[in-house]
């Protein structure tokens, strides 16, 4: 079998992890990443094409004998890149635009969950900010009453269009930001107000071709910016896998009561789902409930999952694209846990400065069982004399990922690697995976 070329679309930590893992396949010759970052420039070949330029991406794939296209982020999936690629005769891993609406519209997702009787929080949807504000004022007539709601923008908002509210003024402010001031642009054309669920959050990712479902090991993301899950929501400050808070019995409930029904519901809606189905769950006292669905690998959950994956990911992606996932054997994973610690720019998730030189990445990468995945990085300087520096170009900059025999060992290795990396204003949470250690202590007591 002749080696194939693969094109990964995207520029974040997820895309670096995908390119790195795809490049390990003996079936692959070249891995291209469009547009990529400073890390994919080392582990693959960067292509200076925007992920929104569908014709240019198609032309590149055709002229470079690309046998498989892997679309990483949600925005090009929702925008129909998979549909356009397939129409051009290319093999693509990822859901169609119609299927990607599961993430592209929270209103569509919630309505689908309700119609399929899949457990989720009670909710109301609103097109007008005034109506949503009136609902809050009527429901919480006394401004001092405690409020337990979550206000969400309907569309894509880079993980930030969700506001957890504990007071009436916070809820009204969130509605104003999303629905009136349109802080998240078109994502706020509709908004959802739902009950706030309580319990630990966990991510369950599955790969499906619309018929067969392969559930991946559990993972747990850390959305709030600061230690102890405080501060504003971010795109994710770290993750680890597996997540011991989700036992095998509960995982079986998630598969039978959430994953299987949503795949069937999408098929009935004539939006068959192919790709990565990501369930963000809350483990409530009444059982697991869906917070959201994403239609791609989570970032940063992708990084520890792919560190642990031992199967050839290209075989899996091709089987999904061809609709023959049921022919594959189950996937194999390293039994050791993996932890990803996100290093961010000063000021993130608010405004931040770019262009600061990063040092120490090579030293961290040389450590045993460590891989530094780049997210918001780029190369600066003159390429002709080889003196290009790696600089920060985004809010979430690096995903320092490590494995160990135990969660504690993996955490220690990850933070040792973090300590080797420097740039002006760099910071990270210090408690990634502590939730897993707390579960282990509870289990022993």
From TrEMBL:
Recorded GO molecular functions are: ATP binding; metal ion binding; phosphoribosylamine-glycine ligase activity
Give the catalytic activity: 5-phospho-beta-D-ribosylamine + glycine + ATP = N(1)-(5-phospho-beta-D-ribosyl)glycinamide + ADP + phosphate + H(+)
Reported EC number(s) for this entry are 6.3.4.13
> Which InterPro entries does the entry link to?
ATP-grasp, ATP_grasp_subdomain_1, PreATP-grasp_dom_sf, PRibGlycinamid_synth_ATP-grasp, PRibGlycinamide_synth, PRibGlycinamide_synth_C-dom, PRibGlycinamide_synth_C_sf, PRibGlycinamide_synth_CS
Q: Does the keyword Ligase apply?
A: yes
Alphabetical list of SMART domains matching this protein? GARS_A (SM01209), GARS_C (SM01210)
> ATP-grasp domain location, by residue?
110-322
Its cofactor is:
Mn(2+); Mg(2+)
Q: Which domain of life is it from?
A: Bacteria
Enumerate the Pfam families for this protein. Answer: GARS_A, GARS_C, GARS_N
The family line of this record is:
Belongs to the GARS family.
What processes does the entry annotate via GO biological process terms? 'de novo' IMP biosynthetic process; purine nucleobase biosynthetic process
What's this protein's name? Phosphoribosylamine--glycine ligase
Which pathway does it operate in? Answer: Purine metabolism; IMP biosynthesis via de novo pathway; N(1)-(5-phospho-D-ribosyl)glycinamide from 5-phospho-alpha-D-ribose 1-diphosphate: step 2/2
Gene encoding the protein? purD
What keywords would UniProt list here?
ATP-binding, Ligase, Manganese, Metal-binding, Nucleotide-binding, Purine biosynthesis
